[in-house]
Amino acid sequence: MDDLRIALQRLASAGALQRVTTSLHWQYELAAVLWKLQHGPTVLFENVDGYDTPVVGNLLNTRDKLAIALDIGPDEVQPRVVHALNNPIEPTVVDEAPWLDVQHPGDVDLTDILPIPVISERDAGRYISAGVLICKDPETGRRNMAICRMQVKGPGQIGVYLAPTHSRGFLQMHRARGTKMEVAVAIGLHPGLLVASQLLTPLDETHVAGGIFQQPVPLARARTVDVEVPTGAEIVLEGVIDPAEEETEGPFGEFPGTYAPQRKNPVIRLTAVSTRERPIFQMIVGGRHPEHLVTGAIAREAGLFNAIRSVVPGVRRVLLTEGGTCRFHAVVSIAKRFPGEGRLTIVTAFANQDLIKHVVVVDDDIDLDNPTDVEWAVATRTRGHEDLVVLPGMKSNPVDPMSVDRTITKVGIDATLPVDAPAEARQRVGVPAHVMEDITHRWGDITGNN
Hints:
- The chain is α+β, with helices and mostly antiparallel strands.
- The strands form 5 sheets. Strands 5, 6, 7, 8, 9, 10, 11, 14 and 17 form a 9-stranded antiparallel β-sheet that branches.
- The longest helix has 20 residues.
- It comes from Thermocrispum agreste.
- GO terms for molecular function: carboxy-lyase activity.
- Belongs to the UbiD family.
- This is UbiD family decarboxylase.
């Protein structure tokens, strides 16, 4: 089964991995390098001050990295994740895993054994930023995976922020039952598992991960809690969350590019720590760093595509834009069949994800990866009084810095041509395609750069 190490081998073979042997400090310096290379290669830091454990970052700062890690083409990423949502594969449970090789007690000081970084200037301390928290529905046993920010508070103690999704819902169920929630945190996973953990789905994400890999994901039982963890993890933390216990956590630099404030949040009391021999620690730089944005975007785009396709079968692709923090702004291309499908796409997007507040819908001849092309569609294919959708007082997400009383005004732009638009409206100015292809083929001779 593919794991992080196989993914790194594939990235290296593709020229997308940079090894850094210069000694760097875990406080800010690792993050600074990843900011400098924010759209560049995956980085493996092999010499972190005071530690033998290497650190990897920029694992998913571009969508192409997932394609490389899965050994598929870049255009296959979104279809693969969409297919996985509709064709999940149940995992297998085994008795052994490499992460069981080195075992520590729960009260170990994590900063003694792991190069947990301080990432952003105003962060409250050292944060595990790429840990996948795994827990279970106390009624059905369904697993949930989610990347959660986790502040190291002291030996055996971690403050954790649970977003208002399934993990928090499970904790509320435990609160009602008067029970504690058992959890495991997997660090150092294949990027396919990271993407699966970000899906907004009622399904068990380990099943959807099987769909992404097109084979069952092997899981191993944790040592001290009733939770199963992917065998390919590098590091596994086990513990319990008492719903009645909360401590201050934060500030932490979040995806809108602002700091989430200090607030009372749940606490994980660790019961065990296990690692591979010389594990690889993974970090994700917080804030508007592309990895923080793209890791979640790949999953959200697939879920949004699925939702739109249920009402607009002609949807072609969904993109959450980096400028919109890969959460707030969506661009959708459709092959429009009937009047009103542009508007239907807009309202479906708003209903599917509360973070989305601006949607642009374009025809399928527009390149979503080219913002100039998208802007051109808005400029030449919209009439403001007919093609704007403005919805005030819509539910927002609490992390939206412009949210007031958890509401926001959402705006959509239908930049699609009318169904009965003349063929001339779709014609682009330029030379014949066969001439451009010939010139491209002869470009070396023409420019003298053979």
